[in-house]
Structure formats: C-alpha cells, structure tokens
Amino acid sequence: MMNCQSDHNAPVRVLVTGGSGLVGRAIQHVVREEGGAKEGEEWIFLSSKDANLMNVDQTRAIFEKHRPTHVIHLAAMVGGLFKNMKYNLDFWRNNIYINDNVLQAAHDVGVVKVVSCLSTCIFPDKTTYPIDETMIHNGPPHESNFGYAYAKRMIDVHNRACFQQHGHCYTAVIPTNVFGPHDNFSIEDGHVLPGLIHKVYIAQKEGKPLVVWGSGTPRRQFIYSLDLARLFLWVLREYPEVDPIILSVGEEDEVSIKEAADAVVEALGFKGEVVHDTSKADGQFKKTASNAKLRRYLPDFTFTPFKQALKETCDWFVANYDSARK
Ligand SMILES: NC(=O)c1ccc[n+]([C@@H]2O[C@H](COP(=O)([O-])OP(=O)(O)OC[C@H]3O[C@@H](n4cnc5c(N)ncnc54)[C@H](OP(=O)(O)O)[C@@H]3O)[C@@H](O)[C@H]2O)c1
C-alpha cells in the first residue's frame, strides 16, 4: 500500500476544479452551509469560465493565480450512456488533456494533496462481483464508454507514478452514479436518474405516458451528491493512500433501472402509464461495487436514504425548472 499522509502546517487553500457542476455544487454546500470548512481555510471553486483546463497555458495561469495547497479535481467532460456512445473520441482527448494539465500544474505549484474523481463505470466490463479498487486495470471497459474510461484510468497511473517519482500524495475517489441538485437533467446527454426525473416531469405536464429507455433490468448503485461531498472532505483531510477508494452505498442498496423509475414516479406523484422502450440500449448490465474499504475506514458513515435523497432532488428540479441544466 502506498501511504502518503502529508504534514502540512501552512495555511490551507483548496482549489476545486469543476466547482460549478453537480459534485462541485454539493461540496460548496457542505463547505459553506454545513460548516465543512475549517478555521483559516480558503476555498476556491472554479468553473470553465475561469479557465479552460483543456488548455495548458490557462491551467498553469489559474494555478499560479491561486497557488493552492490542496486540490479537489472534478472538472471533466461528463455524460450519460447515449452521449458517451456518440463521442468516445472527445471523451478520451478532452479528459486526457484536462487531467494531465491539472495534475502537472498541481505539481508545478507545490500542491501537497490532490483528490481526483474516477467512476465505477471505468471498471472492466467482464469481471467478477463485487468490483473493488484493485480491479481498475484488469481488462477492457464496456465498449459504450471506452474513451471516458481509459482517460479516467490514466489518472490512477499518473498518481502512482507521481508518488514514485516525487512522493506526492495525489489520490482519487471512485463514486458510483451520483445524483442531486444542480445535476444535468438533459434527457439526451444526462445520466439515467436526472434524465428520468426530467422525463417524468414532462410526461406529467403533457399527460402522456412515461417512456423509460432500455429494458429496466440493469442495476445501479446511486450516491447522493451531498453524501459524496461529505466523503470528499474526509478523503482530502484523512485518507492516507495513493490507491483510490470506492465511495458507494452498500451492495444491498443496488436498484434496477425499473425500481429507480418507479421511485421517481412516486417522488413526483406521476399517475400516468409507464412504458419500457426495449429498442434503446441498456449499457452495462451491472457494476456492483464493494464499499468494504470505505467501511473499514468509516464504519459509521450514514448515507441519506435513497427515497429521501431522490425526493429532495425532484423537489429541487421542480423549484428550479427554469434555470436547471437540461
Ligand atoms: N455524475 C456522475 O454520476 C459521476 C459519477 C462518477 C464520477 N463522476 C465524476 O465526478 C466529477 C464531477 O462530475 P459532475 O457530475 O459534477 O459533472 P458536471 O455536473 O457535468 O460538472 C462538470 C464540471 O467540470 C467543468 N468543466 C468541464 N469541462 C471543463 C473544461 N474544459 N475546463 C474547465 N472546467 C471544465 C464544468 O464547468 P462549467 O460548469 O463551467 O461547464 C463543471 O464545473 C467528474 O470528474 C466525473 O467524471 C461523476
């Protein structure tokens, strides 16, 4: 195990790339509204308007400007199954550039800790279950998102090499499907849950049936963005390893897409017909991940119950329909 806990006593300045996205906004909430920041800490949240991190000069300039001591690296080209299937080349190139620029700029300005973000959808397609942190590089990812998956896997390669060569404490977390306020609710390009929420909302408004894409049988673990944000702060402060850690609810909390759709229907009080369009792709059947490592470190962490988190997300979407990303 590569352990790298750093003793950092100087003032802490945390730079969050992708600070305007789903996960970034949740971290903002925990830092600003839940007292997540410590006395004397400075938090800087970036969006793509502050710097295009695909560009090496803009990345260097923004790191020189803020000179962070710690970085949470979230910025990425992100999308659901259907966007991934269309744009594998863009997912590969854009994410490779962003990650290399950010991790190198962090090294250049002497950042002591970086926490980057992988995803459970980067694991091998053919695998045994449950998936754990040791299996990232054990075989090709699902063909639907190989561009995104290989780019994300290279963050782990970068972190290990960076520890070996420079002794840096740069690590990564591996969340399962994230959802919450400020998600991208696009039906074409977004992830399954925000897409479903948007579809149910429209079906309800127009009095039409809800059409769920795919068979409904694939299974997923969902993590509420606010739970993920709380765990991110723990990883930044306490997690001592370079090797990544899966941040997920337990295997027993996995739900089928049909169950997820039913939960959205319930949360929004939709009374119409529900149809499954099996001509649409299902994606990977399951990617059940083990949170045993997380549980070894944090046996008592409580996740928000799925239905409560979903209700809060649906309420947020309805209240912010005009301004929500969709
Ligand atoms: N959502 C999930 O289910 C999920 C699951 C596992 C892992 N993850 C990972 O979690 C991280 C955050 O995802 P998210 O769901 O919060 O994504 P998101 O809502 O789409 O946010 C993406 C963020 O990245 C920024 N960004 C994108 N391209 C950029 C560029 N070229 N230069 C600078 N900033 C750029 C965006 O800035 P703008 O707001 O200005 O566009 C935004 O702040 C990603 O690394 C993703 O791979 C997400």
Automatic annotation (TrEMBL):
<comment type="similarity">
    <text>Belongs to the NAD(P)-dependent epimerase/dehydratase family. Fucose synthase subfamily.</text>
</comment>
<keyword id="KW-0413">Isomerase</keyword>
<comment type="function">
    <text>Catalyzes the two-step NADP-dependent conversion of GDP-4-dehydro-6-deoxy-D-mannose to GDP-fucose, involving an epimerase and a reductase reaction.</text>
</comment>
<dbReference type="Pfam" id="PF01370">
    <property type="entry name" value="Epimerase"/>
</dbReference>
<keyword id="KW-0560">Oxidoreductase</keyword>
<feature type="domain" description="NAD-dependent epimerase/dehydratase">
    <location>
        <begin position="14"/>
        <end position="247"/>
    </location>
</feature>
<dbReference type="GO" id="GO:0050577">
    <property type="term" value="F:GDP-L-fucose synthase activity"/>
</dbReference>
<dbReference type="InterPro" id="IPR028614">
    <property type="entry name" value="GDP_fucose/colitose_synth"/>
</dbReference>
<comment type="pathway">
    <text>Nucleotide-sugar biosynthesis; GDP-L-fucose biosynthesis via de novo pathway; GDP-L-fucose from GDP-alpha-D-mannose: step 2/2.</text>
</comment>
<dbReference type="GO" id="GO:0042351">
    <property type="term" value="P:'de novo' GDP-L-fucose biosynthetic process"/>
</dbReference>
<dbReference type="InterPro" id="IPR036291">
    <property type="entry name" value="NAD(P)-bd_dom_sf"/>
</dbReference>
<dbReference type="InterPro" id="IPR001509">
    <property type="entry name" value="Epimerase_deHydtase"/>
</dbReference>
<keyword id="KW-0521">NADP</keyword>
<dbReference type="GO" id="GO:0016853">
    <property type="term" value="F:isomerase activity"/>
</dbReference>
<protein>
    <recommendedName>
        <fullName>GDP-L-fucose synthase</fullName>
        <ecNumber>1.1.1.271</ecNumber>
    </recommendedName>
</protein>
